[in-house]
Design goal:
By secondary structure, the chain is mainly α. The chain has twelve helices and two strands, in the order αααααβααααααβα. Helix content is 78%, strand content 2%.
Length: 335
Amino acid sequence: MTTASKADKKAVIDIAAWSFNIVTSVGIIIVNKALMQTYGFTFATTLTGLHFVTTTLMTIVLRWLGYIQPSHLPVSDLLKFVLFANFSIVGMNVSLMWNSVGFYQIAKLSMIPVSCLLEVVFDKIRYSRDTKLSILIVLLGVAVCTVTDVSVNTKGFVAAVIAVWSTALQQYYVHHLQRKYQLSSFNLLGHTAPIQAGSLLLTGPFVDYWLTNKRVDAFTYDTSSLLFLILSCTIAIGTNLSQFICIGRFTAVTFQVLGHMKTILVLTLGFVFFGREGLNLHVVLGMIIAILGMIWYGNASSKPGGKERRSYSLPKTSQPKKDSLLEASETDEKV
C-alpha cells in the first residue's frame, strides 16, 4: 500500500471516528437533558454508573465474539485511571452546582491549556505559534457563545480546579495507556468500564443525594422515564467507546479542541428542540469564531512543526507480538 493510500485511509478512519464521537456525545446530551428536565431524573453520578454498566456488558459480548483479545494492564495504572475518571465526573457535577454557569464554562475552557501543559511536560510536545493562536481563537469563540455571568466562590473554585485537572489527566491517560501497553479502545474499555461501573454505583446515590437532596431509590419510574433511561445507557456505550477511540487516534488536546464543535452543535440543537431564547447574535458570532479557529487549528497542527514531539521514548515493556498489534489496529478501524 502506497503512502498516499495509507494517508487517505487514515483520514477516512479519523473522520469516521470523530463523526461517531460527535453523534453519540451530542445525542446523549440531548437525551439526558430531556431525562433530567422533563422527567426530573437529576441523579447524574448514578446515571453515569449505569452508563458504565451497559458499556461493561458490551465489552463482555465483544470478548465473547472475539473482538477483544487478552491484554495486560497493571492494577496500579488501572486504579490511577479510575481515580482520575471518577473525580472528573463528580468534580464536574459539583462544579456545576457550586459555580455560576459562566465560571463553569470558563473552567471547562481551561482544560485545553491544562492538556497542553500535560503534553509539554510528559510527552515533550512543541506547538508552533499558529497552533497556539488557533487554540486561543477556539477558546475565544466558545467563550463568546457560552460565558454569561461570572461569579467565583472559594469552594466552587476548588471544585472547578479538581474537575479540570482530573478530566485533563483522565483524557491524557487514555492516550498514554493505549500507547504504552498497545491496547485497542475495546481492550482499554474492557479493563476500565467494570471498575468504574462498580465504584460509581456504590458512591453515586450518596453523591447525588448530597448534590440534590433527593434519593434515587425514591424516584418514581414510569414507562417514559425508563425508556429515556434505557436510551441514555444505550447511547453511552457509543459515547464511551468513541472517546477512547478518538483520544487513542489523536491526542487529549486535539480531542478538547475539536470537542468544542460538540458545544456548538449542542447550542444549535438546544435552540431547535428546547426553545429559541438560547440563540442570539453573540452566540452566533461566537460559533463563527470558534469554527474558524477549529479550521485554523486543523491546518496549523498538521503542518510540519505545527505540533511535534521533541524527544520521547516509551517505557520499556514486554514487546508484544506483531500479530497482536495488528489486531489492536484492526479492531479500532472496524468501528
